[in-house]
């Protein structure tokens, strides 16, 4: 019976699960931020490239 009482009072597993959940939440936030930043950065570079293509012709004469 003593072993069950110690098992019921042991909170180290719960602490590990809490740390795991916190790490997962932080990971989801980092992934969302990187995705959003990547999309915005891609749009910025595409806009710059389009502006340069209009400003500086490619020399093909078309």
Automatic annotation (TrEMBL):
Transmembrane spans: 16-37
Species for this entry: Devosia elaeis
UniProt-recorded name of the protein: Pilus assembly protein
Keywords (A to Z) from UniProt: Membrane, Transmembrane, Transmembrane helix
Annotated InterPro entries: Flp_Fap (IPR007047)
Source taxon at top rank: Bacteria
Pfam families: Flp_Fap (PF04964)
């Amino acid at each position: 019976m003593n072993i069950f009482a110690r098992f019921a009072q042991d909170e180290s597993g719960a602490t590990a699960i809490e740390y795991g959940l916190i790490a997962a939440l932080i990971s989801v936030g980092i992934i969302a931020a990187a995705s959003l930043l990547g999309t915005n950065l891609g749009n910025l570079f595409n806009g710059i490239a389009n502006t340069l293509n209009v400003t500086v012709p490619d020399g093909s004469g078309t």
